[in-house]
Amino acid sequence: MIIGRGLLASAMNTKHHRESDHIIFAAGVSNSQETRSSEFDREEKMLTDFIGCQKTFVYFSTCSVDDPELLASPYVAHKKRMEQLVKNSIKHIIFRLPQVVGRSKNTHTLTNYFFNQISSDQSFQVWINAKRSLIDVDDVASICGHLLVNPALENQTINIAPPSSMRVLDIVKIFEDVLGKKAKISLVNSGGDYIIESTLSSIAANELKIKFDQNYYYRVIQKYYGRT
């Protein structure tokens, strides 16, 4: 059973997942800049409506819960609270995700923001020291499906991400190359990095022939934003 209709829910919407012994909760707040309590309350109500079922409950959280720069973020605080609700259920798996890339009209995603700003010749700031991790939504669905068949992972919290992140400035440079257009940016001496422990997802990716190599970020951005 799949809950949700967005980018992640669509990628997970296969016959296998629809008929599995899991409730896959791919709904709720998708904007990491969200501050409205009404949106957080909406996700919490949806979550509690399903969390008491007998099937294993699968929840998607964010790797940003480990980012020291975002500890005060309302979105991160909300995700931490939802994680705790899920952990109180009998059977669950929590998947934490970085920046998920796919075909979406959500203007709040990092990659859609870069694409829109560069395409429309709009200027924006880039934090010199900031790094981010990107992952293809199709790879998320594949890795999740691979991990969900392992009963030993029940009641675990697992990061699904490439083994290394990339400087935001270098991500912007990839967009410039893919779009054939120079970004209008101003550099800010700010930002930082944090380590995402992703051993299990890296092992799964290797078994699925997903290459988290040095060109992974370029291939993902080219796939969804390249000129046709």
UniProtKB/TrEMBL annotation:
InterPro entries per the UniProt record, alphabetical: Epimerase_deHydtase (IPR001509), NAD(P)-bd_dom_sf (IPR036291)
Domain of life: Bacteria
Residues covered by the NAD-dependent epimerase/dehydratase domain: 72-161
Protein name (database record): NAD dependent epimerase/dehydratase family protein
Lineage start: Bacteria, Pseudomonadati, Pseudomonadota, Betaproteobacteria, Burkholderiales
